[in-house]
Amino acid sequence: MRYDQPTPFSPIFYDLADDMGFLVMNEAFDGWETEKADFDYGLHFEKWWQTDLESIIKRDRSHPSVVIWSIGNEVVRSTSKTQKKLVDFVKALDVTRPITQGRGYMLGHDDIAGFNGHGEFKGYLEDYHIEHPTRTMVGTEITHTLQTRGVYRTKTSYRVRDNPAPWEKHDPVGKWDRIKDKVYMVPDLTEEEVFLGENPIYESSYDNAIVRMSVRDEIKLAKKLPYLLGTFRWTAFDYLGEAFAGWPARTANFGIIDLAGFEKDAYYLYQSQWSDKPMVHMLPHWTHPGKEGIEIPVVVYTNLDEAELFLNGRSLGVKEMTDDMQIVWLVPYQSGELKVLAKGPNKVLTQVINTASSATSIALYPNKKSIRANKRDVVHVTVDVVDKQGRFVPNANNEVVFKLTGPGKIIGIENGDIVDLSHHLAPKRKAFNGKIMVLIQALDQTGKITLSASGQGLQAQQNKYSSE
Fold it and tell me: Are residues 3 and 26 in contact, defined by beta-carbon separation less than 8 angstroms?
């Protein structure tokens, strides 16, 4: 877990990281003497860097979750002199942890060489190791991939070539020609694009929407290089800001968890590689009207040995998991039941996805039914649009209206759609690919709280919670 802000994060963050076993690279600054943007910390660096850095180190150095100090990230006009000054200052306060800097590996005074996007190019880390064989490395921003929950494309895309960021738009063809032999190429899943008509701001949730390398290629690299400690992907969560995908986008799609807190498919790809608990995850959804007979790539992530896929009870074959970290079938689309059986020693896991019919109702799934009347406790309510059989409708965009009664208040409604500019406190929201998240905060009174959800053409539903 990487944290980078020019001011300390909330103490509860580090307490949670300690309890949950996260490793934190605690980053003090995003820039030094020169501003990256108007009115940023660069205006105050000379006056305040010692005070702020000392407060961060002294406050957080007793947290076992903090394993690396970082003194900067992609610092504009960074100098070896300032890097040494910051490194010496940190070591005067704490010698128990190494120090790094995102893209500061050329300045010569950090303990661990920190690599951002350049480290994703083929051979870049290996070449650096040849020149600096005693240096340990860490991926301070590796890797960058993009995905939008519930959106799929079968042709691989590269940001520079297909959807360049603002700083890449002045010469995307020339830039692509310069880097195309350096990026990790991921084969297309089909010869022709299967999923046409998606908003180009949205990105594919197969592992094929890439800046320079895919999730799977990054994991392979981290396993391969003994001098690479590991990597911090950019980013775990979608976040408001850096919306260079273009108006009206609120952010880019870098997270593996969206703005509403819902997991994207890449979340489960990482889980298949990092978790010892047996798991299986299948994508995409199986509601594709109008695509009957068209071959759709079905991908399975699992940490078990093999998987067997069934369509409407008919086996489509058993395939072993390989170093590619995914199992793929090309399945001619037919509505009905898609089922996977993942198998390992003395273990079989099943996941079933059914084709949904039209949306008729709402399902409410709270993460808890009871809260304390302390003005702090929060209920997270997942709102799914479902059909008459209660099956999740993955392409639903119905507007849902919410009403709350009792000693609680709605403090946020979000759907994860990066181009939806609705106010978070408005009492209604369109579903995005079938889902909405509602956050309900306790007041300082006890009693019963009722959340009502309704929408045109949808059967209204209620959830009740107790505030004690």
Answer: yes
> Torsions phi, psi of 52, nearest 5?
-70, -45
**Rounded Cα–Cα distance for residues 14 and 451 (Å):** 33
Question: Known catalytic residues?
Answer: 74
Is 297 contained in some domain?
yes
d(CA 216, CA 222): 10
Q: Please identify, among 294, 326, 354, the residue that sits at the C-terminal boundary of a domain.
A: 354
Residue 315 bridge partners (DSSP): 310
Give the residue numbers spanning the domain of 389. 361-467
Q: Tell me how many domains the chain contains.
A: 3
Task: Quote the CA–CA distance of 356 and 389 in Å, as a whole number.
Answer: 8
Q: Tell me the one-letter amino acid at 265.
A: D
Whether residue 185 is contained in a domain is answered as: no
Is 158 contained in some domain?
no
| H or E element in which residue 114 lies | strand 112-115
Helices 265-274/215-224 angle, 10° precision: 20
- pLDDT tens-digit series, residues 319-360: 999 999 999 999 999 999 999 999 999 999 999 999 999 999
Q: For the whole prediction, is pTM greater than 0.90?
A: yes
